[in-house]
């Protein structure tokens, strides 16, 4: 058992190294041996996939290796794809020498590796990958001619990334040294922010069983809970989340997660309180340029106003209590809450 | 061997021209043209690989100077890359071109160029947002991990768009424009056999736009039908029925495919025939009268062409049996009247024949048989009858339901009460020899009646056990059978078999009796 686990560790390192400049020292033999190693581990994964004890031992060791990047081997399933991952990593790497490169490409020919009766060969799986790529390119053209984008919540790319995010969160949660919150924080700092927020929102809208690679129904929705908790803890992220995402999307998310809806309403209340009435312009304005303008606030509230019952009532209650606290005025121009309520009710007629 | 290469070299030129033309523009026309040639181009790539793998780099450049250009153009043609195994052969061809021992910078450049092409077809590409690839890498997932999931989500998104479009009749905003559905169907042609693609194929087959003319392209139907017949894709029955209703050539092809399977050199057991037929989904599809008519027409033609060959007859009967079973499973309210399936014969006859002989109680069987016999007789022999039905049609209808003929033979030998012998004999005589004139038929009936009475004698007066020889003598079969006897041979053999089945003691002598019967009997 232990020799296998050590091999795993070493292969995981090899896999990480394959993406770095260090491969310039690799020769054809090294490439072949690395691929053979990957094949062996794939064989192990296929053989012992059903063996609960071995599988959990392997997963435990892999989780302990789970680095901050989340690269390399992260799960038992990933073992089965190690050879393809290694191949592609080397293919992308310009630092790989000529002779080693040739040896790599020649692996694509049939019969290059040892015959494994029931497993699909490396070259067959790579050919299939090329097929998938072509399929996606073809469908992209057909699905959205003229570059029109589908609604965010239905965008298949965002949906896939949301599923990946939830999958990674689950792995982080299960890892011994895993720190899901910390990992999320790192992704937040590195990834394009708007994009990350969109993916997070779509992830929060997923039905509980749909998470990519979910092994069973034991902990449905725990990853969503994790994400919600992290969002609530990170005030900067939460503010950006509630500010920059489209109103409809936010309303759907708030409808699904009561804790978030409370936080959202709280933020909206704070933003509303920063507005004052400008007599000359005849409208509500913020004190500073980065304050949320009246139009945006109205837009968000309008979307919430049309939400299904539990949320809708919450919104109404929040607005009315804010108005009451602000003096309970009926006349416009004195309390932003009065004006909001008037505008919302007017819009209904 | 050299001639092959000359042929291949000129093919190379031909395909290079075609690829260049396809490269020029990406209109619907070029897409259609590309899809037409996908199988042939794949075959060409395969042959190319077989040739290239034997050669070294210099020979390759000598024989196929334009091969590099051709392969490069192929790498940027998504239709080819998406089709079946073309990408596999392309990759192999490229690898064959690799110079294993580069002597100079030219050789290295070639290798580097091949590396570039291979990287390109396996690389991550960017969707419309630039950050997407970066993000996936930030999450630590590789294309091999998420391409299948992404494809699944894209497929599901398209399926739900189609469904919405279908449901939202006049709400033009949510509708997919017909041109878009058409171009989507064109794009799907190479992808039909991709795993996880079935929901979209099903979605398109069951999509009915709001246009009067067909919006899906014919190449799509052909590709789906081909994949279905070769079992490369499995579809639910309603989708297949929709395919055949919308694209007639596919239905024809499916029938021909079935015929080829049924009428092969090896003798198929009835059970296997039934299996093939049920698997083909044609009986279920035939519940739709339009499809039934086409199928029935093909059986009719087959019978005419083969002069009523027993294999085709058996196929027709098994098919009808499966069809009736499928019909019964259909929702009663949505069922069509029987006469829609058999418009050329009297509805009452069709209704009677469609009943199951096994379902009718014993007492009613003889009556029904008599009635059938009477109706057919009227239709066939009575010229004064106003219906003017072609005797062939009546016979064709009758032979669909083989179990009635079986029942007639059985009743002739088994019934204790007075059987309407004449009616039953007429029925059997008509079944086996529809083209006889009334006179000929009467003669046949007389001969068979003689055999029948001999057999009945054998059954009744038993003191000693039955012997095969006695049986043979009774039926008049054997080496010295006179030619006129062999003419009603099939009928007699039918009675003979029934006798073996239903007489006590018949089964014990069955083996011996059968070996004594003349060889080549198709009933046996």
From TrEMBL, chain A:
Single biological process term from Gene Ontology: interstrand cross-link repair
Xref: InterPro entries: FANCF, FANCF_C_sf
Primary site of residence: nucleus
GO CC, one annotated term: Fanconi anaemia nuclear complex
Pfam family, one: FANCF
Assigned keywords, A-Z: DNA damage, DNA repair, Nucleus
Location in or out of the cell: Nucleus
Statement: the UniProt record of this protein carries the keyword Nucleus: yes
Coiled-coil ranges (or none): none
Gene3D superfamilies: 1.25.40.490
Function: DNA repair protein that may operate in a postreplication repair or a cell cycle checkpoint function. May be implicated in interstrand DNA cross-link repair and in the maintenance of normal chromosome stability.
Name of the protein in question: Fanconi anemia group F protein
Originating species: Heterocephalus glaber (Naked mole rat)
Lineage: Eukaryota, Metazoa, Chordata, Craniata, Vertebrata
From TrEMBL, chain B:
Cited InterPro entries: FANCC (IPR000686)
Lineage: Eukaryota, Metazoa, Chordata, Craniata, Vertebrata
Chief localisation class: nucleus
UniProt subunit comment: Belongs to the multisubunit FA complex composed of FANCA, FANCB, FANCC, FANCE, FANCF, FANCG, FANCL/PHF9 and FANCM. This complex may also include HSP70.
Alphabetic keyword roster: Cytoplasm, DNA damage, DNA repair, Nucleus
Origin superkingdom: Eukaryota
Primary role: DNA repair protein that may operate in a postreplication repair or a cell cycle checkpoint function. May be implicated in interstrand DNA cross-link repair and in the maintenance of normal chromosome stability. Upon IFNG induction, may facilitate STAT1 activation by recruiting STAT1 to IFNGR1.
GO biological-process terms attached to the record: cellular response to oxidative stress; interstrand cross-link repair; nucleotide-excision repair
GO CC entries: Fanconi anaemia nuclear complex
Record keyword DNA repair present: yes
Location in or out of the cell: Nucleus
Official protein name in the record: Fanconi anemia group C protein homolog
One Pfam family linked to the record: Fanconi_C
């Amino acid at each position: 058992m232990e020799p296998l686990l050590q091999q795993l560790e070493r292969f995981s390192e090899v896999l990480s190294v394959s993406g770095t400049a260090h491969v310039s020292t690799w020769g054809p033999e090294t490439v072949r041996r690395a691929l053979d190693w990957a094949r062996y581990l794939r064989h192990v994964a296929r053989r012992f996939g059903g063996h609960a004890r071995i599988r959990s031992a392997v997963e435990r060791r892999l989780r302990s290796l789970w680095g901050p990047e989340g690269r390399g081997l992260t799960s038992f399933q990933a073992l089965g794809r190690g050879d393809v991952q290694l191949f592609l990593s080397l293919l992308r790497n310009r630092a790989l020498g000529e002779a080693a490169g040739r040896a790599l490409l020649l692996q694509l020919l049939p019969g290059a590796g040892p015959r494994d009766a029931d497993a699909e060969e490396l070259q067959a799986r790579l050919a299939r990958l090329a097929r998938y790529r072509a399929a996606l390119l073809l469908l992209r053209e057909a699905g959205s001619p003229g570059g029109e984008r589908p609604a965010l919540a239905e965008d298949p790319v965002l949906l896939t990334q949301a599923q990946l995010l939830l999958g990674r969160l689950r792995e982080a949660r299960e890892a011994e040294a895993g720190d899901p919150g910390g990992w999320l924080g790192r992704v937040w700092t590195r990834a394009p922010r708007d994009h990350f927020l969109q993916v997070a929102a779509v992830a929060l809208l997923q039905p509980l069983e749909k998470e990519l690679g979910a092994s069973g129904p034991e902990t449905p929705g725990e990853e969503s809970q994790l994400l919600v908790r992290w969002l609530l803890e990170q005030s900067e992220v939460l503010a950006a989340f509630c500010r920059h995402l489209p109103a409809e999307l936010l309303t759907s998310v708030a409808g699904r997660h009561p804790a978030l809806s409370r936080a959202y309403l709280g933020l909206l209340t704070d933003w509303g309180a920063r507005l004052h009435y400008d007599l000359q312009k005849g409208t509500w304005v913020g004190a500073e340029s980065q304050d949320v303008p009246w139009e945006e606030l109205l837009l968000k509230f309008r979307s919430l106003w049309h939400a299904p019952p539990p949320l809708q009532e919450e919104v109404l209650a929040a607005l009315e209590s804010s108005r009451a606290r602000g003096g309970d005025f009926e006349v416009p121009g004195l309390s932003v809450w009065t004006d909001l309520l008037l505008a919302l009710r007017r819009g209904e007629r | 061997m050299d001639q092959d290469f000359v042929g291949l070299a000129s093919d190379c030129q031909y395909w290079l021209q075609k690829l260049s033309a396809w490269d020029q523009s990406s209109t619907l026309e070029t897409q259609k043209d590309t899809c037409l040639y996908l199988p042939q181009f794949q075959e060409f790539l395969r042959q190319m690989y077989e040739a290239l793998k034997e050669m070294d780099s210099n020979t390759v450049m000598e024989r196929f100077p334009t091969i590099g250009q051709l392969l490069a153009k192929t790498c940027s043609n998504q239709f080819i890359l998406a089709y079946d195994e073309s990408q596999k052969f392309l990759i192999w061809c490229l690898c064959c071109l690799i110079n294993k021992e580069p002597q100079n910078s030219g050789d290295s450049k070639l290798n580097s160029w091949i590396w570039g092409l291979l990287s390109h077809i396996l690389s991550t590409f960017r969707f419309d947002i630039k950050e997407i690839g970066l993000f996936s890498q930030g999450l630590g997932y590789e294309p091999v991990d998420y391409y299948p999931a992404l494809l699944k989500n894209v497929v599901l998104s398209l399926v739900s768009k189609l469904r919405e479009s279908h449901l939202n009749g006049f709400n033009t905003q949510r509708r997919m424009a017909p041109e878009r559905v058409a171009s989507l169907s064109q794009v799907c042609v190479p992808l039909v056999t991709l795993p996880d693609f079935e929901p979209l194929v099903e979605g398109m087959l069951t999509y009915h736009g709001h246009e009067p003319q067909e919006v899906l392209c014919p190449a799509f139907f052909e590709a789906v039908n081909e994949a279905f017949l070769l079992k490369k894709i499995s579809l639910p029955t309603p989708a297949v029925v929709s395919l055949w209703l919308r694209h007639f050539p596919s239905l024809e092809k499916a029938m021909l495919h079935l015929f080829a399977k049924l009428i092969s050199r090896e003798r198929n057991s009835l059970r296997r025939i039934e299996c093939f037929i049920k698997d083909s989904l044609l009986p279920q599809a035939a519940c739709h009268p339009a499809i039934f008519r086409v199928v029935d027409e093909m059986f009719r033609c087959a019978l005419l062409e083969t002069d009523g060959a027993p294999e085709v007859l058996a196929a027709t009967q098994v098919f009808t049996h499966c069809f009736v079973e499928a019909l019964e499973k259909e929702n009663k309210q949505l069922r069509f009247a029987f006469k829609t399936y058999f418009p050329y014969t009297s509805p009452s006859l069709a209704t009677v024949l469609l009943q199951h002989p096994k379902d009718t109680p014993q007492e009613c069987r003889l009556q029904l048989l008599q009635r059938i016999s009477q109706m057919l007789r009227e239709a066939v022999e009575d010229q004064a009858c106003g219906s003017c039905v072609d005797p062939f049609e009546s016979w064709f209808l009758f032979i669909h339901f083989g179990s009635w003929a079986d029942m007639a033979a059985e009743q002739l030998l088994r019934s204790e009460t007075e059987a309407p012998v004449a009616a039953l004999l007429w029925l059997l005589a008509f079944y086996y020899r529809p083209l006889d004139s009334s006179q000929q038929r009467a003669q046949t009936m007389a001969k068979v009646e003689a055999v029948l009475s001999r057999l009945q004698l054998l059954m009744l007066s038993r003191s000693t056990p039955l012997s095969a020889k006695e049986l043979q003598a009774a039926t008049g079969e054997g080496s010295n059978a006179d030619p006129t006897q062999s003419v009603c041979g099939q009928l007699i053999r039918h009675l003979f078999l029934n006798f073996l089945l239903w007489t006590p003691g018949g089964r014990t002598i069955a083996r011996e009796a059968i070996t004594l019967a003349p060889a080549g009997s198709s009933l046996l």
